[in-house]
Amino acid sequence: MIALKRCSLAAALGALSVVAGPAHAAVAPAVAPVTTVEAVQGTVVSWSVPGTKRCAMGGRSWAALQETCYYAIDMLHAPRLVRVSRTGVGPATFAHISVKASSYGTEDIALGDIPKRTLRRQTSSATRVIRHWSQRSGQGAKGQPGSRCLSARRSRPLPEAKGFGAKWVFNGRPDSSDIHSGVDYAVGSGTPVAAMADGTVVIAEDLFFTGKAVFIDHGNGLVGMYFHLSEIRVQAGQDVKKGEILGLTGSTGRVSGPHLHLGIRWHDARINPQTLLDDPAKIPSFGR
Fold it and tell me: Coil, strand, or helix at residue 206?
């Protein structure tokens, strides 16, 4: 059974000015330094300070998780300097994340062409998923992933995670390319898949590209996605517990063979699930 459950260099920018007077020199107060942490596209940065209550980035704000802020960097976020903040007792504190480009490579995928009569189903599937993303995920107290973020527990080791961020070119046609926003685990069909954390099922149905898919809102803006299942054992609106079986692995949808696709969106950012499933100490952090 596959069971998934919860889980820098600082640039000191200061200014010091000296004003000479006839009898003495006055020193102006130094500008507070702004800390900068580097992070590649598709990862997460943490900021843990006692008393932290809220976090903000890119015009969005959310509640801190056990006095820790997590800032998710989308896989296609433009490389640039991003200002983030945290608030608690007293005024807000600001810092910068220097987003760096990360090349995930290109992979050629050989699949049958999509018959025109099935394109309407693909459009319908996409509309339903987009409708979900247009809604803000709730804070979901019962489903908060916790300050340790996510960690993996397995009854047997998972295969190597592959494919995150890769540009997929279908049947050798660049115009049909897509960016793979999750990771793939090469496991045989019929392997039970368990929820990685508590949450609420928001989508549980057979979609065009993803096949039989389950989307779970784990709270605090974090959504987990499990694709290409051969069987779904939950339904939309159902509350699930960490470790509860969601379905069985398979090869439904647009795939070339059986495997589990795991995707993560956190505050609408598409991030590499392995960032959260690996040791939390590897996550870039302010003050580390």
Answer: strand
What is the sign, positive or negative, of the torsion defined by CA atoms of 13, 52, 219, 134?
Answer: negative
The model's pLDDT over 86-126, given as tens digits with 9 standing for 90+, comes to 999 888 999 999 999 987 776 666 665 555 555 555 555 55
Query: Alpha-carbon distance 78 to 239, whole Å?
Result: 36
Partners of residue 32 on adjacent β-strands: none
DSSP symbols for 86-134: EESSSS-EEEEEEEE-----EEEE--PPPPGGGHHHHHHHHHHHHHHHT
Q: State phi, psi for 190 to the nearest 5 degrees.
A: 95, 5
Closest of 260, 274, 80, 266 to residue 164, by C-alpha: 274
Residue 10 structure tokens: 């600082």
Token match 């390319």: residue? 177
The encoded tokens of residue 185 equal 């685990």
pLDDT digit string, tens, across residues 64-73: 999 999 999 9
Give the pLDDT confidence score for residue 33 in this predicted structure.
Answer: 62
pLDDT higher for 229 or 24? 229
CA–CA gap between residue 90 and residue 72 (Å, rounded)? 25
Query: What are residue 55's DSSP bridge partners?
Result: 62, 86
pTM score of the predicted model: 0.76
- Order the strands of the 81-87 sheet from edge to edge: 36-40, 93-100, 81-87, 54-57, 60-63
Q: Give the SS3 label for residue 274.
A: helix
Residue with tokens 């019962």: 142
